[in-house]
Write a structure and sequence with these properties.
The chain is of the alpha+beta class. The protein is built from four helices and seven strands, in the order H-E-H-H-E-E-H-E-E-E-E. The protein has a single domain, classed as Nuclear Transport Factor 2, Chain: A (Roll), CATH 3.10.450. It is about 35% helix and about 40% strand. A seven-stranded mixed sheet has the order 1-4-5-6-7-2-3, with helices on one face. It is globular.
């Protein structure tokens, strides 16, 4: 009976540990720009940089609907000095107002990517242009979510490096 109990205990322990590992959402070790790639982190990092470059390219087209399509349905945008903007339609309206105001360029530099194969946080720097001139710059954190094999912006928070005017 004692051997049976020990065997069941060992089996249960191994089973639980195996289940926990197979459902792991352990983060990918941070991948920093220009650092040596790891096993999983380099492909994820590259996909996020590619997705964010696509966002910059769409920004250049001044197409608010196309911008909205890059966000999840339940996305939240958190601009400086403002409330949450919730839902990709509202996010599209935000970007449309930026285009109407004359904002016509955006650059992004990805510094770090943290996460797993389905959800990552990206840390980086941005520069915004108004009528072709450097208007503002700052930092951002974007949470990307993979939906049906494609990366979408799920949470987008950014702020300026410059003092409020």
């Amino acid at each position: 009976m004692k051997k049976l109990f020990i065997s069941l205990f060992v089996f249960s322990f191994l089973f639980v540990m195996g289940c926990e590992q197979s459902q792991s959402t352990e983060p990918v070790t941070a991948m920093q720009n220009n650092s040596s790639p790891g096993f999983l982190q380099k492909p994820v990092f590259d996909k996020i940089v590619e997705a964010h470059q696509n966002l910059v390219d769409v920004f250049a087209t001044q197409d608010a609907e196309a911008m909205a399509a890059l966000y999840t349905q339940d996305a939240e945008l958190m601009p400086p000095n403002g409330d949450f903007i919730t839902g990709n339609a509202a996010v599209g309206a935000f970007w449309g107002s930026m285009f109407t105001a004359g904002f016509d360029g955006l650059t992004i530099e990805t510094l770090e990517v943290y996460g797993n194969a389905n959800s990552v946080a990206e840390v980086g720097l941005w520069t915004l242009f108004l009528n072709g001139e450097n208007f503002d710059n700052g930092k951002f954190i974007v949470v990307w979510k993979k939906v049906q094999g494609k990366w979408y912006v799920h949470r987008d928070c950014f702020n300026s490096n410059n003092p409020a005017q």
